[in-house]
Design a protein that fits this description.
Shape: elongated
CATH class of the largest domain: Alpha Beta
Largest sheet: 4 strands, antiparallel
Radius of gyration: 32 Å
CATH superfamily of the largest domain: Protein of unknown function (DUF541), domain 1
Distance between the termini: 34 Å
Length: 248
């Protein structure tokens, strides 16, 4: 009897030391691996864009770098003046690319003649600007005016929302609610109770809203002098994965 008690004490001590050495999460996983419920829920909110980003600029070619730069600078100055007149603040303008590259001419050698190396025949100057527009009603007019002012590099329109953090918080609430509804349903139908939450993990917390195009307004379609642009609307969503201890 004494030997059995001694063995039991040693076993308890051994298990206690083992649980102390194991990380809490590892200990829970080892002891309750078969009694854990893991579910993932998704929360989605409607996102209507109120910000647009466009890329514009000028690509110039000339015999010399100076000639090309002078032409490029003159046209870029016109673009800056146009954007200022349209009400775009300087803090919403950012140079995204500027480079000067040589233009090479390649010659095909005639039969019996040595191949000539490529020769520089001119220079290409490129200056690009990213513009943030907070009044979406003006996008079409601005795009048309940019081309008229000398921009020959225009595109990469991207829409976004200014209240993204608020939308993410709402999506988190919906994701948790969705996960809880599933857990309660499974617990009720399978005949068990939900214990403590063991873990909670969020995925895609910085998801960008995906916007779908909508039909343009009749007024916009009828004005042939304005470039038609539609911001549309989209969804912003994220997922939450929660683990519960199952109580039988």
């Amino acid at each position: 009897m004494t030997k059995r008690l001694s063995f039991a004490k040693k076993l308890v001590i051994h298990l206690t030391v083992l649980m102390t050495l194991l990380p809490p999460s590892k200990a829970i996983a080892d002891l309750q691996e078969k009694n854990i419920l893991t579910l993932t829920g998704r929360g989605t909110v409607l996102a209507k864009p109120d910000i647009a980003y466009i890329s514009t600029g000028v690509l110039s070619e000339a015999k010399t770098p100076i000639e090309g730069l002078e032409d490029n600078n003159a046209k870029m100055q016109s673009i800056f003046k146009l954007l200022e007149k349209a009400g775009i603040e300087k803090k919403h303008l950012q140079t995204s690319n500027f480079n000067i590259q040589p233009i090479y001419s390649h010659y095909r050698a005639k039969p019996g003649k040595a191949q000539r190396p490529p020769q520089i025949s001119g220079y290409r100057i490129q200056n690009n600007l990213t513009v943030k527009i907070i009044d979406l009603q003006t996008i079409g007019k601005i795009l048309t005016a940019l081309v008229q002012s000398g921009s020959n590099q225009l595109g990469n329109i991207r829409f976004d929302v200014s209240n993204k953090q608020e939308l993410l918080m709402e999506a988190r609430k919906k994701a948790v609610q969705n996960t809880l509804e599933k857990a309660k349903l499974y617990a009720q139908e399978a005949g068990f109770k939900l214990g403590n939450v063991l873990s909670l993990r969020e995925t895609n917390p910085n998801a960008r809203p995906q916007f779908k195009s909508v039909a343009r307004s009749a007024a916009l379609q009828e004005d042939a002098g304005i470039t038609p642009i539609a911001g549309g609307q989209g969804d912003l969503s994220l997922s939450v994965t929660i683990q519960w201890q199952i109580i039988q």
